[in-house]
Every structure is written in C-alpha cells, then in structure tokens.
Write a structure and sequence with these properties.
Radius of gyration: 23 Å
Largest sheet: 7 strands, mixed
Number of helices: 14
Distance between the termini: 60 Å
Bound molecules: pyridoxal-5'-phosphate
Helix content: 25-40%
Shape: globular
Number of strands: 11
C-alpha cells in the first residue's frame, strides 16, 4: 500500500474527526461568509506525484479553494432555485460515501430496497399513487430527460415502432406542446434526438405563464390525431405559475398525448395546504419530474422521476448482459435510468425524511413561501420597483429603472445575498428564490436592506 494511504488508514479516526471539525466550522460560518465571492483566481498546481495525505489535502483545500466557495448552502443565497442541506441529509450524504453502495441491483444489498422505500415516501409526499413508479436521478434535467425518453417510446408504440430498437429516425418528426417550458426541456429533447425544434410553444393566459388550455386544445386538434407529447409546468422559474394540470389531463379523452409534468420545485406546493390545489391533476400525469436538491434541502445531486409505464422505461433504459440479468416485471434500477452504476442518492433524502418527517419539511416550505411574500411586499413599497407577478409561491420577480445586470453584480459584491437576473415578458428583471431551510425573517430584512441600498445607487 502507498505509505501515505497506509498512514491515513492507521489515522482514520483522527482524520475523520479533523474533517468533522472542519465541516463544523464551515457550517457555523455559513451565515457570515460572503454569499457569492465570485470565481476568484487560484493559480493551478501540477498533478501531485507524491501525495500529502488527507490532513495535508484538508489544509491545501482550506488555503486554496475554500475561501472562494459560495454560501449557496446558506440562508441568503436566493439565486436560481437553490436548496441547502438539512443536518440529517448531510449525515445521510456522508454515509452514502462511507458505505459506497452501487444502487444498481438487488443482488447483494438492501440499498436498493431503501431507495424503493424512499421513492414510496416521496410519491406519497407529492400526492401520487402506486401507479407511478420512480427512481432517483441526478437532477431535474435528467428527470425531464427520462420522462421525455419514455414519452418518445410511447409515441413510437402508438405509431407501431420501437424507438429503443430502431432509433428516432423511425419515428419521423414529433411535436412537443407546452406553454412555458423550462430550458432543460429543450436540452433534454436535444439529448434524446427529438430536437429542440420539436417544441411548439402554446399561448399562455394573459399576464401569466400558465398555458391557455383552450389554445392547447386547438393545437392538439390541428395535429390530426397524431400522438404527441405535452409538457405541463408546475412551477415556472420566473413567476412560479402552474398549468391547470387537471384540465390538460382531461384533454387525453379527446387527443392522444403523453403528459409529462415538470414539477422541479413546484411539486413542493403539495406541502402547503394553502397551495396544494395548484398541483390538482398531477397524479394524472404520465411522467413527473421533481428535484430534491432544491426544496427538499438534500445535497447535490438529487432528483426523482416518476412514470406510469415502467415497461416502456425498461425498453429505453435496460442494460442487459449475462452478468447483469434481464429486466423482470419489477426491474433493477440498472434497467431504469441513464446511469448503470449509481450512487445511493436516496440515503440523504431518507435521512432527512426520517429525521424531520412531513411536518418538518412542510414547515420549511411554508416558511419559505411566507418569506418570499415578505420580501415581495417590502420591495413593492420601494420607489421605482415593480414586482412583476404576484408571489404565488417562493419566487419574487421584480424590476426597476436601471441596469439589471449591473445591479445583480453590485448585489453579489456586497457579499450579503445573491439574486439571478432574468427576462420576463421582454423586461430585464431580478429573481429572488427562497428554498433554503435556514432562512429567517431577519435574513429577509438583511436582503431587503441590501437591495434598497444597491437599487438606490443604480
Ligand atoms: C422548473 C425547472 N425544471 C428543471 C430544472 C433543472 O434542474 P437541475 O438543474 O436540477 O437539473 C429547474 C432548475 O432550476 C427548474 O426550475
């Protein structure tokens, strides 16, 4: 054994303790470190020939890289839609590495059964039923990809071809209809060979991002009964608008389409009694995407995909070989997702759900919604600021006179908070998205003070 590795093995308890203390300091400083220090400049070092051991690596990481890391796990990082990591999910994630299970098949471990239990819990959390089976994937992009790949296979089934066997060329052009699809829908369609141009955006309701169901009906009826894919949106990034999923699903009695719903973070509306109605009809979807590294507050990377057609999913993703076995009616995960070998991502979610239950996670969701409203109403009172949509859930989308990109940079430079710029209805704007378990009212007040000062100066 390499001497450095042998020393680390002998010193493992002390080294783990040192790592724990390092983590403890990092977490204790989360609220006070600069929220977005920027990329910085760290001079590259050559590939080490001889290692410096874990203690040396910790020191080197602390000196060279750690100072530039963002406070994205902390309470005032409001960019994109970014969750933190609950204490239990951090522990679950550490133990995922300790046990280093390959959650690929049932043959040698109970790890895959733990993943199934966690999927069952999540299904219940989001109001789905046993008709939906699921699997963990790396994020909502991959979850969308899996859902759309199954949808593609379904279109093939309707047309009498197997895309999994014959390729997309056998299918001809496929239409994907959606009101306000997330950018990752285009990315997923590019990856699965249907192409970004397969999307036909459908009119949205006036002043909204939710699809106009009568326009969708008209679009479907123009397709002469050809099977298509409809992407329903349950939580758009700019204004967190929700399609009327029940009304969309009802159109399936008239037109043949696969309904995929992107509920990457909007799925968590299910945890707020006041908002759960926004997801009415979700259980009718043929496939559903929900991100977990957003509002479940588990570490990157983690999401879940659900679908009703496990047979088609297996047709797309199966990885059969004599040493891997053939898919059964209840296939191993190796036959269900893009990866073959895969991390036991379920463990972090399992820990957080075990530790805090539905009630604990619902409290995070309800608090974040209340905090978004608090910031929204404070901003609405600032001269010149226009909140561009009602705060439906956890995002405040607003604009002001002046250069939005420059303001976003100036806000980040304060170290106090981080917001991402966007364009909504042709209007440059900023988004503040709340999805962290640590955020409190005093964080919102600090964020507001920062915004007030920066906007006054732009
Ligand atoms: C609605 C929606 N879909 C998909 C995604 C992609 O998620 P990920 O970056 O986890 O792949 C996001 C990310 O913000 C999102 O908000």
């Amino acid at each position: 054994m390499d001497p450095q590795l042998a020393t680390d093995l002998a010193d493992l308890p002390d080294l783990l303790d040192a790592t724990r203390k390092f983590a403890e300091r990092a977490l204790a400083g989360l609220s006070s470190r600069p929220v977005a220090p920027g990329p910085g400049v760290v001079a590259p070092e050559p590939l080490p020939l001889r290692g410096i051991g874990l203690a040396g690596a910790l020191d080197r990481f602390a000196a060279r890289w750690e100072p530039g890391f963002s406070g994205s796990a902390g309470p005032r990082y409001l960019g994109f839609v970014t969750g933190g990591a609950t204490p239990a999910s951090v522990a679950g994630d550490w133990l995922t590495s300790v046990y280093d299970q390959n959650a690929v098949m049932d043959a040698d471990s109970s790890a895959t059964a733990l993943e199934r239990e966690t999927i069952g819990w999540l299904r219940e959390l989001f109001g789905l039923d046993s008709a939906h089976s699921g699997a963990f994937v790396s994020g909502a992009t991959t979850s969308n990809l899996v859902g759309l790949a199954i949808a593609r296979e379904w279109v093939g089934e309707r047309l009498g071809v197997s895309v999994a066997r014959s390729g997309v060329a056998a299918l001809g052009a496929v239409t994907v209809l959606s009101g306000s699809p997330h950018s990752t829908i285009y990315k997923a369609l590019s990856m699965i060979g249907l192409g970004r141009d397969s999307v036909r955006t459908v009119a949205v309701l006036p002043g909204r991002e939710a699809v106009d169901v009568s326009a969708l009906r008209a679009a479907l009826s123009s397709l002469d009964g050809r099977p298509v894919i409809v992407v329903g949106n349950a939580g758009t990034v700019n204004t967190v608008d929700f399609d009327d999923l029940r009304a969309i699903a009802a159109l399936r009695s008239e037109f043949p389409f696969w309904l995929h719903v992107d509920a990457a973070f909007g799925g968590f509306a299910a945890l707020s009694p006041e908002h759960a109605g926004l997801l009415d009809g979700l259980s009718e979807a043929d496939s559903v995407c929900v991100d977990l590294h957003k509002w479940l507050n588990v570490p990157y990377d983690s999401a879940v995909q659900f679908s009703r057609r496990r047979d088609l999913q297996t047709a797309v993703f199966h990885n059969s070989a004599p040493y891997l076995g053939v898919p059964t009616a209840d296939p191993d995960f190796v036959h269900l997702t893009p990866e073959s070998s895969r991390r036991l991502r379920a463990l972090a979610a399992w820990f957080s759900l075990s530790a805090y239950g539905v009630e604990g996670h619902a409290e995070i969701v309800r608090r974040d919604i209340a905090l978004a409203r608090r910031l929204g109403s404070k901003l609405a009172g600032l001269p010149g600021v226009r909140v561009l949509a009602p705060v439906r859930l956890n995002v405040v989308c607003f604009t002001f006179p002046g250069d939005v990109s420059a303001a976003a940079r100036a806000i980040a430079e304060t170290g106090e908070t981080f917001l991402t710029p966007t364009v909504y209805e042709g209007q440059p704007a900023l988004r503040a998205a709340f999805s962290n378990w640590r955020t409190t009212e005093s964080d919102v007040d600090r964020v507001f003070e920062t915004l007030r000062k920066v906007l006054a100066g732009t």
